[in-house]
């Protein structure tokens, strides 16, 4: 019995190793091609942000926590006013999501262009660069903020066992309409079920959300 158990463990580990290699190769190629193909959209969004606020930056870099609690700089199109981080402390009491996450449906810091690109998830496109750099994957749990991780329980920390992603089960199953606890359960479900075909399914369903948003704000 012990022999068969060890044999199964070896096969499982080999399968996971092949999956990780294949996933990283696919992530790199797909995100690199995506940056090239989507460059016209990058240009249009950048111009829109600059027209609304000529003095503010186009891109926004924010420290997030990745796999094994390792911090990294995540890239996004700026969708908020320049001093958004300074205002966050004043708005924390108006948080509309329970748990270690901050969300406001009518966040006063969001610009007009920001509201549009958030609705259609265009603000997330620069994260393809994080994928190319190996800091993120195309599919995986969303990377949390350092302040959010400080509030994690042992159960919540399980979502940091894998590389964070640009999209995941949370995005395709409600996004901002999903509470923190449910988000963690969806992340753990993904971690337990993850394989190449499951990742592709999530990616295809994410693309569909560009045309039919499901609660992003």
Describe this structure in words.
It is a single chain. Helix content is 50%, strand content 9%. By secondary structure, the protein is mainly alpha-helical. The chain has one domain (2-209). Strands 1-2 form a two-stranded antiparallel sheet. A hairpin with a 5-residue loop joins strand 1 (59-65) and strand 2. Helix 2 (39-52) packs antiparallel against helix 4 (112-119). The protein is globular and about 50 Å long.
Key words describing this protein structure:
disordered N terminus, mainly alpha, two-stranded parallel sheet, two-stranded antiparallel ribbon, globular, 217 residues
Order of SSEs, N→C? HHEEHHHEHEHHH
Indicate how many domains the architecture comprises: 1
Shape: globular
Low-confidence stretches: 3-12
Which range does the strand content fall in?
5-15%
Count of individual beta strands: 4
The whole-number mean of residue pLDDT values reads 85
Query: C-alpha Rg, in Å?
Result: 18 Å
Q: Which structural class fits the helix and strand makeup?
A: mainly alpha
For the largest beta-sheet, the strand count, sense and barrel status come to:
2 strands, antiparallel
Spatial order of strands in the largest sheet: 1-2
Beginning-to-end CA distance, first to last residue: 53 Å
- How many distinct helices? 9
* Residues in helices, as a percent range: 40-55%
